[in-house]
Amino acid sequence: MRIAIPLTAGKLSQHFGHCEQFAIIDVDNDSKTIKSQELVVPPAHEPGVLPKWLAGLHVELIIAGGMGQRAHQLFTENNIQIVVGAPDNEPQELISQYLSGELKCGQNICDH
Length: 112
Fold this sequence. Notes:
Order of helices and strands: EEEEHEHEH
Number of strands: 6
Radius of gyration: 13 Å
CATH architecture: 2-Layer Sandwich
Largest sheet: 6 strands, mixed
Shape: globular
CATH class: Alpha Beta
Number of domains: 1
Number of helices: 3
CATH superfamily: Dinitrogenase iron-molybdenum cofactor biosynthesis domain
Strand content: 25-35%
Distance between the termini: 29 Å
C-alpha cells in the first residue's frame, strides 16, 4: 500500500492544501512495516491538482489533519481513501499507529 502524508516542518500539516511536502510511504500490509519513504514537493495549490498528482504517484491512502469537502470528493473519484482528523505527528509514527489500528483521529479541521 502507498500512503501520502502532507507535511509542514516534518510533521503532519493541519491544512492539507498548503503543506510544504508529502511523505510518500510504501508499506507492507502483511508484515505491517514501512518498505520505503520519500519526500516530494507538491505542485502549486490549485483546485483539483493534488488528487490527480497523487493518483499519478499511485497513492492509495491519505492521512490528513483537515481537508475540504471538494478535495475529499476528488480523492474519492481518484480511488484514494482518506483518513482525516489525524494529529500533527511525524509520518513514521502516524503510519505505525495506522497499521496497528491505533491511529486516533478527531474532527476534520477544514471547514471549506
